[in-house]
From TrEMBL:
It comes from the Eukaryota. It comes from Mythimna loreyi. This is Uncharacterized protein.
Length: 482
């Protein structure tokens, strides 16, 4: 058996460099994901004769000099359009997660990530110059489309390179650049109060990512699964050399293993996730868990955003909560089982949200809301790792793409649940709180993946969880599909 990480190292100089260049893409994702806060903040205006609505309102520009709301009068009967632009953006993320996830399993991690980055940069720049609301919204949808691809492909690249002993820590640290970008966005919004320059700045900040064309490597695991043995050997030798490991036996070990386990180039599709009972159960439950996590996270964030009128403080506060979640996750997933963390955190999150609905509004509800948001982000981080370990290389990005698509659907539904408040202050928290409880108990049906080597074949993934002997415990085996 060929031990990939025994040959290239579990985590060395190359892995530090890889993490640095891949993590840079997360800042742009955070900027665009959270940009709507500063693109369409609440607008204050006055009308002649103190009318509620009018065609030529006078806007208060003391905080923001120009937003999409003031530019295209998205008030009164057009107020719903400012939410629609974000819904369409999230639809782009939803589509990109699925399409790029499937494409990267077929065509490789590197080319699909590069295409995602190129679309994100140029669509983002174009959107800042769009003259109408509809053209702005349409072009920004492609920014979301690219964001969906970047989020899932970048994560899988990191997970397929690092050894299992480092995978849990890296899966938490992977989200730190996103939360840092979330916090930094408050400074960008504070310094740039015109939405066109704001959108242009956050788009141009990603131009350096075009260097991916020259420096981003493919993953050896994907190359070997696709029978690109020569390319995989050359790449593994380069990685081992950078990590100061011997390279003499790499070619011989890889080629002999590939010869002994000759197999037809896999032609798996996303449908393979639903053809066998175990995989079908896993992908359905995992998709529901992602949907619920995103649904609750954006719903709770919406609740917290109404705690103060200072939008900049709101952004820093929510970003800081998420950053704390990343830090807490490191020991949690290092020493606890994936399934246990997801189940317990979902149940606690559900209880927190129920408490928010039935305690008087004030410090108590605020604290419970912040704890709920923290738990949502912890679940989100663990689900990323859990999903990566549960599905094989041949459909891994497709599986994460489906789950990410469901997460976007949850984000799109959340504002409607948050709008239940007029029917009673308990309605929205209960509408958010009931689903984590359901998700928590459903996740008990999922197999545990802690300390399992990443699988490559559908057969291995289908066997996972059937019995303890089928779990591939820290073998670091290549396990190429036969």
């Amino acid at each position: 058996m060929v031990l990939i990480n025994n040959l290239i190292g579990n985590f060395g100089r190359f892995h530090y460099w890889l993490c640095f260049i891949v993590f840079m893409s997360k800042f742009g994702v955070a900027f665009h994901q959270m940009a709507i806060i500063f693109l369409a903040p609440p607008a204050h205006y006055t009308c002649p004769r103190n009318a509620t609505c009018c065609d030529n309102p006078v806007y208060d520009k003391s905080i923001f000099t120009r937003t999409i709301v003031t530019e295209w009068n998205l008030i009164c009967k057009n107020d719903w359009l400012k939410d629609l632009t974000q819904t369409i953006f999230q639809f782009g993320v939803l589509s990109g997660s699925l399409i790029f996830g499937i494409a990267s399993d077929r065509y490789g991690r590197k080319p699909t990530l590069i295409i995602s980055v190129i679309i994100e940069i140029f669509a983002g720049i174009m959107s800042s110059f769009m003259p109408t609301y509809w053209s702005f919204t349409f072009v920004r949808m492609f920014v979301g489309f690219a964001n969906g691809g970047i989020m899932i492909i970048s994560f899988v690249i990191i997970m397929e390179y690092v050894g299992s002993s480092y995978r849990d820590v890296l899966s938490a640290l992977f989200h730190v650049p996103f939360t840092t970008g979330h916090i930094l966005l408050a400074a960008v919004g504070y310094l740039i109060r015109d939405y066109t320059y704001f959108q242009l700045f956050i788009s141009l900040s990603n131009v350096l990512l075009l260097l991916y064309i020259c420096i981003l490597p493919e993953t050896p695991r994907w190359l070997l699964v696709m029978n690109k043995t020569e390319q995989a050997v050359v790449l593994m030798e380069q990685v081992a050399k950078i990590n100061k490991l011997p390279t003499e036996e790499i070619r011989q070990k890889v080629e002999s293993y590939q010869f002994e386990h000759r197999h037809v180039k896999p032609n798996n599709t996303v449908l393979d996730l639903f053809r066998t009972p175990n995989l079908r159960k896993n992908i359905i439950i995992m998709s529901f868990a992602w949907l619920v996590c995103s649904y609750c996270f954006y719903g709770v964030t919406y609740y917290i955003s109404h705690l103060t009128g200072d939008v900049f403080i709101n952004v820093v506060a929510t970003g800081t909560v998420c950053l704390v979640g990343c830090i807490i996750c490191i020991p949690l997933i290092k020493f606890s089982k994936r399934r246990s963390v997801v189940v317990v955190a979902n149940i606690l999150n559900s209880l927190c949200l129920f408490i928010v609905g039935f305690v008087p509004e004030g410090k108590g509800s605020v604290v419970m809301g912040c704890i709920g948001e923290l738990l949502c982000y912890i679940i989100f981080i663990v689900l990323y790792l859990f999903c990566t370990e549960m599905f094989p290389t041949v459909v891994r990005n497709a599986a994460i793409g489906i789950c990410s698509m469901m997460a976007r659907l949850g984000a799109m539904i959340a504002p409607f649940a948050a709008g239940l408040r007029p029917f009673g202050k308990w309605c929205a928290p209960v509408a958010f709180g009931i689903f984590p409880m359901i998700a928590g108990f459903l996740c008990l049906l999922l197999p545990e993946t802690k300390d399992c080597e990443l699988m490559n074949s559908i057969e291995e993934a289908e066997a996972l969880g059937r019995n303890s002997s089928s779990n591939l415990r820290t073998s670091n085996d290549l396990n190429v599909t036969e």
